[in-house]
Amino acid sequence: MIEDEILREIRATRDAFAAEHNYDVRAMVAALRAEDAALGRVVVSFPARPAEDVSLGTKPTATGELTDAQKAEVDRRLAAHRANPDAAIPWEQIQADAMTRLAK
User: Fold this and answer.
1) CA dist., res. 100 & res. 104, Å (int)
2) Rounded to the nearest 5°, which phi and psi values hold at 58?
3) Cα angle 13, 19, 23; round to 5
4) Which is nearest to 55 in space by CA: 88, 39, 77, 36?
5) CA–centroid distance for 36 within its chain
6) 50 CA to centre of own chain
7) Which member of 34, 36, 50, 64 lies 3.0 to 4.6 Å from 41 by CB, making a disulfide possible if both were Cys?
């Protein structure tokens, strides 16, 4: 197991929180939900969706090959990117934005 100062602190905090709630998962969830409510955080929940390739919007094939519809979608997206490459958002920007939202 990896050990460093940050992980030790995280594990100690986790263990203290669990002990504070007698290691009762339901009590821990209730406490976290109460904290979210007190801070005005809104928890969004979506119904489960069937497994599918969300990025292409279709179910994967048994062989892993792209279907004609998936190939057409890849071609469409590639053409859109070639027509306007500046519209792409670099992964580093997406990651930074996500981390900023998580920190709130």
Assistant:
1) 7
2) -140, 160
3) 115
4) 77
5) 18
6) 17
7) 36
What the block records as the tokens of 70 is 């998936």
Report the C-alpha gap between 69 and 75 in whole angstroms. 10
Q: Which of 79, 81, 59, 82 is nearest to 70 (CA)?
A: 59
| pLDDT 10s digits, 68-95 | 888 898 899 899 999 998 888 888 888 8
Check pLDDT > 70 for residue 15. Answer: yes
Maximum distance among all alpha carbons in the chain?
A: 58
Q: What is the 3-state secondary structure (H, E, C) of 24-52?
A: CHHHHHHHHHHHHHHCCCCCCCCCCCCCC
- Residue for token digits 């998936």? 70
Name the nearest CA neighbour of 49 among 38, 35, 59. Answer: 59
